[in-house]
Hints:
6-stranded mixed sheet; 2 domains; single chain; 11 strands; 5-stranded mixed sheet; Nucleotidyltransferase, domain 5
Amino acid sequence: xxxxxxxxxxxxxxxxxxxxxxxxxxxxxxxxxxxxxxxxxxxxxxxxxxxxxxxxxxxxxxxxxxxxxxxxxxxxxxxxxxxxxxxxxxxxxxxxxxxxxxxxxxxxxxxxxxxxxxxxxxxxxxxxxxxxxxxxxxxxxxxxxxxxxxxxxxxxxxxxxxxxxxxxxxxxxxxxxxxxxxxxxxxxxxxxxxxxxxxxxxxxxxxxxxxxxxxxxxxxxxxxxxxxxxxxxxxxxxxxxxxxxxxxx
Length: 249
């Protein structure tokens, strides 16, 4: 069995793979203490027919949890996603040293899932990122904007009277109160923003495949059309592709 670890802005996700399938995902807060040996032992006991966990990949979008990496690395062969690690796409970003590891993983997963196609990946999480991979496997870049929760928090934090509003997946177009107006502005605004990006990309790449992923995926996947797919855990799948690409090097 193999394991990939995605340390995001607020949480650590740990995915256990058997062959190419995710068989379990564990999620921890970034400041949470994780007993690595106990966790690995429990996973191996839970899946005794799948062998031991002997290989893994760690990725972080921010400051690396060194204690976690040290403990995990003492138990298994642990690769770290950094510039020295090979990846199966060609990065054309003008500042590759600033490119988030999550966005790299998304590009790798998208190209592996849809080889020979132009793909736009929209990751709706803490931030909303658009990442474009053209059909020859070249990652060209994309966009970054505030995520849904960040927008609600910003309206409350940077104004005097606007409340912190609960999210809703079905906001009215015309809000008839401050709360419903904020819900309309944020949710409908995000949807319009994302669909606008899709239309602009499709004007340049008519056969474009669009993939939605991320924690706020469900805000976007109800009105799917041809060549639009919803794939949860795409970052984890991309990290697994990178792990396999480097496993024997």
